């Protein structure tokens, strides 16, 4: 154990000698490309990572064709669109909303929770009341397209998540700004056809998102219950603290999750994916099954979509 510790310590020391790559923004799935564009405009103008991640993920929240986030998100099994989101800055400030209905930009409500209240998390009716007090508009988030998909689902009412298609497209974004500060955001309509009242990992600080400005940041997508059982994103950050690269840290947590679930029947419903970014501007990702991708933008990488490595077919 001691030897391993020394090895990782040396590695961390080596990293400190390298020049820091910044700014950097990474985010989950195809819609990460548009989100990165919005974030990048802020980052290259010397803006804060916090503003970058908020503005970045708002693009997915506002897009009715992204049916797993914000406006047009798939509803729960009772036909209600309920949203989860959280945000975190480089001072360990964080804000979160869960089971929030009728508000298109839960990420901005989460930021208001962080900045305008003494609390971290507001849920349901209380979150909605707070959002309205803050000037957010109440609107119908169930688009015709998502309503039709729900009606098709209702015919069988069979809860069988389809990996990488209907259930796993949370947008999680991590950014490192010119000042070397990290922030992260995560927003989702959660698992489609979920039980009414179900909250996933995405608004849970430590599960769907975590960062430590001395170390790095991590965020997740996929079956939220798995991230909650393992404190997934916090664990990725902790492993980076002990010298793992972002890629190694994501891989180790995915392997822990696999170990927990591997003997369950019909495991094909399970997908999890992590993205991570460290203080040096190095990034990495890993997922359980093929199909997860993420978008990266740096001064030299022009918003490229990368397929994450995976553990099993
Ligand atoms: N993690 C989200 C949740 O469980 C969904 C997803 O990313 O697919 O609510």
UniProtKB/TrEMBL annotation:
| PANTHER family for the chain | L-ASPARAGINASE, N(4)-(BETA-N-ACETYLGLUCOSAMINYL)-L-ASPARAGINASE
Q: What is the superkingdom listed in this entry's lineage?
A: Bacteria
Instruction: Write down what this protein is called.
Output: N(4)-(Beta-N-acetylglucosaminyl)-L-asparaginase
Record the organism: Flavivirga algicola
**Which SUPFAM superfamilies does its entry note?**
N-terminal nucleophile aminohydrolases (Ntn hydrolases) (SSF56235)
Question: InterPro entries annotated for this entry?
Answer: Ntn_hydrolases_N (IPR029055), Peptidase_T2 (IPR000246)
């Amino acid at each position: 154990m001691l030897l391993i510790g020394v090895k990782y310590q040396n590695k961390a020391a080596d990293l400190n000698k390298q020049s820091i790559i910044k700014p950097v923004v990474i985010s989950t799935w195809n819609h990460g490309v548009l989100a990165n564009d919005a974030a990048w405009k802020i980052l290259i103008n010397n803006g804060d990572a916090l503003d970058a991640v908020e503005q970045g993920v708002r693009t997915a929240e506002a897009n009715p064709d992204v049916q797993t986030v914000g406006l047009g998100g798939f509803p729960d099994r009772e036909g209600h669109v309920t949203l989860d989101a959280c945000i975190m800055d480089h001072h360990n400030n964080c804000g979160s909303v869960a089971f929030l209905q009728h508000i298109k930009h839960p990420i901005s409500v989460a930021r208001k929770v962080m900045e305008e209240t003494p609390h971290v998390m507001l849920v349901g009716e209380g979150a909605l009341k707070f959002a309205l007090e803050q000037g957010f508009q109440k609107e119908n988030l169930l688009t015709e397209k998502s309503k039709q998909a729900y009606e098709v689902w209702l015919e069988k009412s069979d809860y069988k998540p389809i990996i990488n298609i209907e259930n796993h497209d949370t947008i999680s974004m991590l950014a490192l700004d010119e000042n070397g500060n990290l922030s992260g955001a995560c927003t989702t309509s959660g698992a489609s056809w979920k039980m009414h009242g179900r909250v996933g990992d995405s608004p849970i600080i430590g599960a769907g998102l975590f960062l430590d400005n001395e170390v790095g940041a991590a965020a997740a997508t996929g079956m939220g219950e798995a991230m909650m059982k393992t404190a997934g994103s916090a664990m990725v950050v902790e492993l980076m603290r002990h010298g793992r690269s972002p890629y190694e840290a994501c891989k180790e947590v995915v392997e822990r999750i696999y170990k927990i679930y591997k003997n369950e029947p019909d495991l094909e419903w399970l997908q999890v994916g992590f993205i991570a970014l460290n203080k040096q501007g190095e990034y990495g990702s890993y997922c359980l099954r093929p199909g997860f991708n993420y978008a990266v933008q740096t001064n030299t990488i022009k918003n490229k979509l990368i397929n994450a490595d995976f553990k099993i077919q």
